[in-house]
């Protein structure tokens, strides 16, 4: 594993402040991983993040990026190699989306065609249609769209590192889930080294390959893979902070694509009423799933829908509860609770039907994870050094999923 960012005894004391803001942080962050900094308000997460690109100058300690000590490097040069995304985005209000995204490429002196091409490529990457969005102003976008533009802007010059400070903090919960999933999809493609600040432990567990929990003493309490934080908290603070409901939290660790999906009886939506009725009579489920000509789930139909005197081809209930394969089981459970049928339909990137997740899938996954965690803890105890120290790494793969 290549180390991308090293923080050595990194410390910040703001001038005139009584309390230290960040106290001697040591971290090694590997290439291509998402490291989340999480902790209560005022514990020093943002200050740590901003010291990495030197928006805030450290009082002492060192920052090493790709084996180079950048603690005293020209910060403008440094910032061009590090993308930065903040809550509320900080887009320039009087510039169009395209101009906003082009900020760094223009600073770097790219020619006009190259910039235009890159802007369109980035808009597509963050799921915004370039033709529709490039000439809009930030105030003409929704919160989620602005956040996507913020991510596109940070990626413009293809920096190896991204710093993200509560990037989804101002978005409502449903859109936040969607943005988190989209961002995880994007990360599979771009494989950046990401440092991500949040105060939300659920978001940390969902997004982080590893998580650093900061305490009120402005130091790191534990830096480890999510499973280990949940199963072996280093101290009472971490235990309290990760909180109750460990089983539910573990649902954030497992992806839909890692579990065995259920199959649901389905037919093309163009199927005749008689054939639908025949099929319904054969199956134990009370609903049939109808797919459009591309294989995308569209409606659920029951015997009652089919026996109405007025037959129209669009009878039934629209399929609302759908989740992409990379969604977590927690997302799937959320969706399932909104579904009249009690299952969430799983779809691929083209929205085609792959299978369903139901409550049995979730229960099986929880039980398997419990068992694996028990084994993991047993193995860790067996290998633990006599002083009780903890070693990071590897556990995530063991406990299911390569998220
Ligand atoms: N510019 C500043 N001048 C003086 N003190 C500051 C300054 N910025 C932050 N602090 C203090 O430093 C400490 C760490 O702040 P920081 O913003 O890094 O915390 P945080 O963990 O990101 O908090 P939050 O989740 O509330 O954003 C806090 O006690 C804060 O009051």
UniProtKB/TrEMBL annotation:
- Give the record's keywords alphabetically: ATP-binding, CBS domain, Nucleotide-binding, Repeat, Transport
Source superkingdom: Bacteria
Q: Which GO terms describe its molecular function?
A: ABC-type quaternary ammonium compound transporting activity; ATP binding; ATP hydrolysis activity
Q: One Pfam family of this protein, by short name?
A: CBS
The EC number(s) attached to this protein equal 7.6.2.9
Query: Which organism is the protein's source?
Result: Egibacter rhizosphaerae
Its recorded name reads ABC-type quaternary amine transporter
Which is a GO BP term held by this UniProt record? glycine betaine transport
The ABC transporter domain sits at 5-242
């Amino acid at each position: 594993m290549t180390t991308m960012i090293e923080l050595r005894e990194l410390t910040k004391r703001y001038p005139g402040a009584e309390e230290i803001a960040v106290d001697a942080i040591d971290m090694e962050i590997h290439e291509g991983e998402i490291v989340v900094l999480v902790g209560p308000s005022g514990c020093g997460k943002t200050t740590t993040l901003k010291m990495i690109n030197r928006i805030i100058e450290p009082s002492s300690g060192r920052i090493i990026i790709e084996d180079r000590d950048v603690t005293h490097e020209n910060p403008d040069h440094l910032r061009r190699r590090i993308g930065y995304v903040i809550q509320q985005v900080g887009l320039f209000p009087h510039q169009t989306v395209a101009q906003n995204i082009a900020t760094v490429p223009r600073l770097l002196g790219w020619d006009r065609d190259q910039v235009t091409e890159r802007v369109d490529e980035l808009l597509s990457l963050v799921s915004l249609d370039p033709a529709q969005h490039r000439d809009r102003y930030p105030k003409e976008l929704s919160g989620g769209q602005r956040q996507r533009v913020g991510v596109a802007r940070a990626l413009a010059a293809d920096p190896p590192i991204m710093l993200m400070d509560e990037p989804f903090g101002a978005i409502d919960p449903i859109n936040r889930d969607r943005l988190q999933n989209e961002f995880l999809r994007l990360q599979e493609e771009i494989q950046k080294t990401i440092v991500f600040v949040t105060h939300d432990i659920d978001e940390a567990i969902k997004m982080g390959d590893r998580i650093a929990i900061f305490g009120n003493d402005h130091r790191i309490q534990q830096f480890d893979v999510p499973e280990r934080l949940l199963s072996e908290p280093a101290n009472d603070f971490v235990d309290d902070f990760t909180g109750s409901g460990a089983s539910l939290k573990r649902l954030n660790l497992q992806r839909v694509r890692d579990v065995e999906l259920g199959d649901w009886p389905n037919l093309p939506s163009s199927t005749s009423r008689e054939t639908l009725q025949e099929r319904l009579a054969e199956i134990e489920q009370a609903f049939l799933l109808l797919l459009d000509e591309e294989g995308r789930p569209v409606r659920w139909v029951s015997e009652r829908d089919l026996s109405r005197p007025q037959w129209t081809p669009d009878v039934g209930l629209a399929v609302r509860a759908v989740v992409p394969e990379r969604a977590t089981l927690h997302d799937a459970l959320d969706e399932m609770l909104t579904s009249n049928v009690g299952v969430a339909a799983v779809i691929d990137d083209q929205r085609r039907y792959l299978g369903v997740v139901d409550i049995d899938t979730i229960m099986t996954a929880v039980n398997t994870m419990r068992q694996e965690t028990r084994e993991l803890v047993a193995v860790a105890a067996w290998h633990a050094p006599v002083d009780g120290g903890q070693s990071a790494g590897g556990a995530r793969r063991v406990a299911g999923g390569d998220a």
